[in-house]
């Protein structure tokens, strides 16, 4: 296992729930699921870990500010403002902010209702 597959626990991360939509009444077959939008802020040196997957909760991410380093499959990729990435059932990763300013992303995903 490469070093990229070992991630520290989450630290320096703030998550703010922005909106949800109950998908059950909206789309046949989606009972018990919701569309969720969150704003995630990762402080400099912060980590959104540990390594996790997105099976059963597909989504997309869009970077508003700063740079987020996405670690997956032993590869570290930097994403800056105006860029994002998909998180599908094959996504297994962790995130960090190697920069000097807070990194802010908008995350939209489909999750089981709590």
From TrEMBL:
This is Cupin type-2 domain-containing protein. Residues 39-108 form the Cupin type-2 domain. Gene3D superfamilies: Jelly Rolls (2.60.120.10). It comes from Ferrigenium kumadai. InterPro entries: Cupin_2, RmlC-like_jellyroll, RmlC_Cupin_sf.
